[in-house]
Amino acid sequence: MNRRMIVNTVGKMILAEGFFLILPTVVSLIYRESCLFAFALTAVIALGLGGLMIGLSKPRTPVIYAKEGFFIVSASWILFSLLGALPFKISGEIPSYIDAVFETVSGFTTTGASILTNVEALSKGLLFWRSFTHWIGGMGILVFVMAVIPNISERSIHILRAEVPGPTVGKLVPRIKDTAKILYLIYIVMTMVQIVLLLLGGMSAFDSILYAFGTAGTGGFGIKADSLGSYSPYLQWVIAVFMLLFGINFNVYYLILIRRFKAAVKSEELWTYLGIVAASVLGIAFAIFPQYKNLSDTLRHSVFQVSSIITTTGFATADFNLWPAFAKGILLVLMFVGGCAGSTAGGIKVSRVVLMIKQIRREIQKMLHPRSFKSLRFEGRPVEEQTLTGVNTYLGIYLICFAAIFLIISLEPFGLESNFSAVTACFNNIGPGFGAVGPAAGFSEYSDLSKIVLSIAMLLGRLEIFPLIIFFSPTSWLRK
Amino acid sequence: MKIIVTGCGKIGTALIESLVSEGHDVVAIDNSPQVLKDITNLYDVISACGNGTDWDLLLEVGTQNADLFVAVTGSDELNMLSCFLAKRMGAKHTVARIRNPEHNDGSLDFLRKQLEISLVINPERMVARELYNMLKLPSAARVETFSGRGLEMVELKLKSDSPLDGMKLMDLRKKYPYKFLICMVQRKNQVYIPDGTFQLNSGDKIGLIATPVEVTKLLRSLGILKKQARDVMILGASNTAYYLARMLLAGGNSVKIVDKNEARCKGFSEELPEAVMIHGDGAQQELLLEEGLSNVDAFVALTGLDEQNILVSYFAESNQVPKVISKVNRDEFIPMAESLGLDSVVSPKQTVANILVRYARALGNSLDSSVETLYKLADGKAEALEFTVHTDAPVCNIPLKDLPLKPNTLIAGITRGRKSIIPAGNDEIRGEDKVLILTSGNRIRNLSDILRNKQ
Q1: Contact B46 A174 (CB under 8 A)
Q2: How many CB atoms within 10 Å of residue B166?
Q3: Which residues pair with A366 in a beta bridge?
Q4: Residue B97: enclosing H or E segment and its boundaries?
Q5: Element of type H or E holding B287
Q6: What is the pLDDT of residue B453?
Q7: Comparing C-alpha atoms, which of B33, B100, B30, B32 is closest to residue B61?
Q8: How far apart are CA B116 and CA B97, in angstroms?
């Protein structure tokens, strides 16, 4: 295993984090807040540590394989979170380091679950950093570094495959660096458009930027106690639409960019995604109409909540904990489905769901006609059997991990609905769940052990399990 | 540049590797998803599964915007057709591998023009030509020619009893007053572009540049001039063997070819009546000895199996055959062959990859000069390039000793009209000259790249 290359690359990542930290430092400078010191110190630590790792670990060869890719991704994300939690701890605004790490992991994994009981008391610098972690983690910290830093590795496809979610990962253009740049360009432009639209709706500049960050990464950190409940309907609609947009596979946007509109529109995953959204909106609208009694509110809350949950963002315009069970049931299913592959959303991903259903239909056909042979097609192309095996295995390990984490969390005294939805909300990177962890509450009441386990759950969900399992498996560390 | 390569076999993969390292955007097309998966794991390219003649596939990968389309699948016809389609779709230049001897006679030019193919590669014929050159000058491990045939670069291995062992380069000039330049020395795995103070050791592989006449004189006075190969034995009746035999026979040499396939022997004897065909298994040492292995001037192993080529060559070498050359396809085997004492090894992949990289470079750049020839030397660690100088190039009309060159770069030769010059400090480069540059570790795209500070 090319350990030097791993340390060197992770060092570059930490260095990048140091640079990222400059932004919240500037923000706290503008608002003259005491957390300025915390940010500056953390930035210095990150730059120093990163520089040290790069300097001390000069790789003899840049060649890496899939294993190094997994290690680089896991190590980067863990270190990023541990370092990123320091500003919270040092400034004293989140006194417990475990709480701070939970919040930071929730930020980078774009979960949006919070241990804060009083969000509005947080200083602006820290609020900015919280939402900024969403933005960085959404498109990927490694994707960013690959776009920016030269010579990561000619085999960086292994890093890309380990970080970008979805059953298969491909490039947009021949060079990884260019693919990463294009992805980030689309991402940045969409974020800015949303900021402008929010500003036009009367939202303050600070709020617009933070909510755009949270939407782009489909994260969900709010800066008000009732999430988005108190903002105007126009603003809620803008965010609802943009959440949906960020849940779409970025390949579609690239196709639009190069004017291959027909190919973009023909995406099977896109239509399934929109279909699920439409059906869910209708179902929920029926269920909650008696509660709101007028069409525009019902529709707005329904659309908002559906797009928030399916893209695993986690913003809320209403306390959906109080909705009828059928509406909550739809939301629960959406929590597992997730957004499209190749987007910033979490969950199992629509493409896996589609492939699973196609496989089931094929199996049924095989039971009726044992000798029949059917090769599956997806997105206009034949699907390799290996991809299908990958989907099935992923679902299997997903369930096993979910069960294990759920058992540990069940030690908490909050009842089945709360515990189960807590695990769901973290594992799928959504944020709020039901019951005690609903949108009006948070994770502050959970024990430290649960917070640590849930942090791991968030990372497992964002990185799609395998990189972390490989990283923590003892046999991977042997000299093989 | 945007380059599309269809057919990711041995040559396709070698091409992709070279082109990616040159910084081009490469799309790889092949029928096999497994092959493509391996390629995307190794090289920074994008892949598409399918056939190069599939119009939709070509559209999808953006052939209409391609600068270069290269078809190197196993089928000549497929290559020709996909190049034609690509050209029609809008690709700027196309390259097709056409290896079948039937296509390679007079009709080749006609086909090429009608299908608008920019460059035809016949790997076997290219390798045969390289082998022919090596046989003409057996003392050398490799021979490259520049400026038509005006300058030759000869790679030699200094054996342990060589008179050059321990000599400094500047002393060399005094002892052997011929016009030559030692432009490159490969020792262990390092490549040096030497200056006058460099000391040669036995075991070094040196690159020597001079006109063909001076080369012969120098080698003779060094006592290592072997006589040109007259009787040649070839193992394996492959396409390469066919072209090589034809060239040798045309030059008045005698050729004996051993192959174990009767049909091939029959086919060859019909096409090449002057060659002697032996139907038998070349791995049998008795057979080779019986057919006069000990008396031939040169032995060339051209079977399809690298292992067999290496082992039989080793046998020939130990039988004191003056010149033994083996064809080795797999790069991993080349150092192994060399450690067995076989220093003449030819890699068809490298031959073709070199030619294509040169072509791509020539297409990509032609600011104040154009690349005429390009050879990768010393396993790719050094390059010999030949440029035609435009009249207003910044390197013109300055005495060479005043030109600030990048480190590890050498101006090894100048061809002016018919004259070939081995340059000394006071020589100048003039417009319309052809300049031969040796460099290690620098990427030289234009002649001005050799200067330390580009203006």
Answers
A1: yes
A2: 11
A3: none
A4: strand B93-97
A5: helix B285-290
A6: 64
A7: B30
A8: 14
pLDDT under 70: residue ranges of chain B: 101, 104, 147-149, 364-374, 376, 378-380, 453-455
| Tokens coding B12 | 């396709």
Which stretches in chain A have pLDDT values below 50? none
Q: In angstroms, what CA-CA distances link A247 with A59, A138, A266, A407, B220?
A: 37, 11, 17, 30, 76
Q: Residue B368: what pLDDT?
A: 44
Interface test with A, best of B46, B49, B54, B56 (most A CBs within 10 A): B46
Using CB atoms within 10 Å of the CB of residue B175, give its burial: 0 to 12 exposed, 13 to 18 middle, 19+ buried: exposed
Residue with tokens 């690359």: A9
Residue type, A416: L
Between A66, A156, A174, which is nearest B45 by CB? Answer: A174
**Closest approach of B36 to chain A, Cα-based (Å):** 12
**What's the whole-model pTM score?**
0.77
Which own/partner pairs from A455-458 qualify as long-range (CB within 8 Å, at least 24 positions apart)? A455/A81, A455/A101, A455/A102, A455/A105, A455/A106, A455/A426, A456/A405, A457/A401, A457/A405, A457/A423, A457/A426, A457/A427, A458/A105, A458/A106, A458/A109, A458/A111, A458/A113, A458/A426, A458/A427, A458/A429
Asked if B33 and A384 come within 8 Å (Cβ–Cβ), the reply is: yes
Nearest CA in chain A to B25: A174
- Report the 10 Å Cβ neighbour count for A325: 9
Please say whether the dihedral angle defined by the alpha carbons of residues B231, B236, B237 and B238, taken in this order, is positive or negative. Answer: negative
d(CA B340, CA B320): 14
